[in-house]
Amino acid sequence: MDVSMLQRTYSDLLTSLFREGILNQQFTELQQLQDENNPGFVFEVVSLFFEDSGRLINELISNFNQQAVDYKKIDAYVHQLKGSSASIGAEKIRSVCQTFREYYDKNDIQGCYNCIQPLNQEFVTFKSKLEALFTLEQQIVAAGGSIPMMRH
Amino acid sequence: MASSQVVKVLIVDDDVLTRRIYRTMLFRFGFEITEAGDGKSAVNQFLTGNEYDLILMDNDMPSMDGVEATRTLRGMGIPAKIIAITADANSRGAFLDAGADEFLLKPVNFTVLTDILKAFNFLN
Question: Which residues carry this modification: 4-aspartylphosphate (chain B) (predicted)?
Answer without folding.
Answer: 58
